[in-house]
Amino acid sequence: MIRIHSANQIAVWLWVACILQVLQGAPLIVFSAICIFLAFCCCSGRCWRTLKRMRFLLLVITLVYGWSTPGQYLWPSRWSPTEEGLCWGLLQLVRLLGVLAALQLLLWRLSSARMFSGLYVLLTPFTFLGFDRERWALRLSLTMAFSGDLLLQQHALNREGFLMQLAGAEQPCELQEVSILVESLSFFDLALLWALFAAVLFTLLMMV
After folding, report:
1. 10 Å Cβ neighbour count for 202?
2. Which of 69, 100, 141, 201 could bridge 115 with an S-S bond, Cβ 3.0-4.6 Å?
């Protein structure tokens, strides 16, 4: 079985997130449905808990588009949502669900160590600009792991609980040395990574 490098898996998620911003209508619904189906097949528990955490945000997005987009009113009243607004809101909802499903697949496949390894490789070009890729890769991987843990918590997280978690994270602790193995890139991995970079760039250009 071919083992795909973690950097390529992150690049695939970036491409999926970009192409979901480009697609409209039926192609967007089909592509998002595929992402959601794969996510529920592989990690249904993570997906259900994420949806539970995000349900109010998803509802607000739909309502904001419904009442703020000009168009044909659903009923004769100034307080009525518009058909165009609700359609745009539902499309944004489908788009966000597709991105979240792809992200849950990525977090399910990659451990924190592999996430760091992939980000470390992807940030290599920024070293020419003076960026410390070790520090940025570690920060990004820890942020994604922390946000993933928050979404997967069983109990409801209120404001006080969230502040207590932040306060606990800011408490001084003993410094520990951490060693993380960075995966090496084979010729196949490098070729695939360049192809994915080209796909992401092409998709970004389509958004302009």
Report:
1. 13
2. 141
